[in-house]
Amino acid sequence: MRKKIVAGNWKMNKNLQEGVALAKELNGLLVADKPNCEVVICTPFIHLATVAGLINNEVLQLGAENCADKASGAYTGEVSAEMVKSTGAQYVILGHSERREYYNETPEILKEKVDLALANGLKILFCIGESLEQREANQQNEVCKAELEGSVFHLTPEQWANVVIAYEPIWAIGTGKTATSDQAEEIHAFIRSCVAEKYGQEVADNTSILYGGSCKGSNAPELFAKPNIDGGLIGGASLKASDFKEIIDAF
Ligand code: 13P
To answer: 55, 167, 200, 229: least buried by Cβ within 10 Å?
Structure first.
């Protein structure tokens, strides 16, 4: 059966000392009170190696928020999937709407990143989701399906086993406006049907599909109770250990 996962995306927050303190605090909370789901923190690159050395992987996994679309070489400022892996991280977030929008990451670029991440033994948290305009035009299903087809549906079923999908409606990210649990459940079920159409029902049933967008302790229990919502990808509420723990405790 598929995994339940709560993953934090710190985005561009926390300097090294603050990030280390947060990771230590969270790790302590989880060691003391074992979570009923997999917990992942995705941090800026500079935190990875240090944080990897101080968390207990039995209760807490680590991921990056991005990786390069090239394997290595003269790409000043970029960080490769191999480098991410070498820090001890297990995951990488790819396809986040902020990277698609602000850094012009196209489906083709994301496809390269996906392939490199998997080739280097990383698991992928792949984000999809529609804008407000697309939601108002009732295009959310086709937008999500196209994002899957554009960057991850070329994978083999074996590769797919290392992919987690995060549905993140752009209009709900950092806005305090969350999708209702019924809205989220409806599109999660649709996303699972797309996976079933591509890889078969068994693979679809084993695929974790997370919800992201203003998810917090107060709404996580209702969201996570839905049959097709397998956890969350958390931005703002992952920046304080007690807030994040409250979401983890929804399981
Ligand atoms: P918020 O939880 O801050 O809305 O961010 C969600 C998100 O983008 C996680 O990747």
So the answer is: 200
